Amino acid sequence: MTATRILTEPTPSTISVQELTRFCDDYLSADAFKDYAPNGLQVDGGRAIQRIVTGVTACEALIEAAIADKADAIMVHHGYFWKGEPAPITGMKGRRIRKLMQHGISMIGYHLPLDAHPLIGNNAKLAEMLGMTITGALYPNETHPVGNIATCPPQSAQKLIAQITQALGRVPLHISANYSAPNSTDANMEHNRLIERVGICTGGAQDMIEQAALMGCDAFISGEISERTTHIARELGIDYFACGHHATERGGIKALGDLIAQQFGLPVTFIDIDNPA
Ligand SMILES: [Zn+2]
Q1: What is the reported pLDDT for 112?
Q2: Taking the domain 3-114+249-273, which CATH number applies?
């Protein structure tokens, strides 16, 4: 397992887990979102916070790394208690939570609020990494929309692939809008133009591609891909770039950690538990 550590370490101090959570709840407007999991404090480790570890997902490897780092709290984008999952704290979930409790480590999770935040959110950070400027929302009529529209200098799909590869350290899976069916006589199936208006939503947001097409985007960037996404991209004439769920969601939680380190003078370590999906 590869774990990359990036350490931000100012003078150590102590805060309560409630104070830490209150600050993040306010900063991210966590209460405003209807989410698939509770945002904020999910597991109370019962002690004050001096050291924090951040990561994308509160998996067992991250918990082990936090124990080794002597952290008092883990902060993640993917926590526990997702809508529809079995409630009993048994099996894998039981082992994770038991480990946290036994070591007095709190776990704090922010999901949609951390995707959507205009400054430190996953979408904002991905746009920044790709040299794009966010100009609006994919769903402009929602009060707290997740998903953005961004602009970039007009460029080919090949150039965008190179840029994504450099920014995220992995080659995206690209579905070209410029597709003609075998033996097709329908010239409308071919879409050949430069990309300058892009829909962005990190993670498993591949099904927002139709909305991106509706909003006039030349391309859509997300993390995952489904079989149907290929056909949607080709038939709606919008390029699709699947850049990895994990890879596109490192930016937000890392930025939140940097903010907390500055705000409270606590050492915050971002630990990247390698995930190719
Ligand atoms: Zn996600």
Answers
A1: 97
A2: 3.40.1390.30
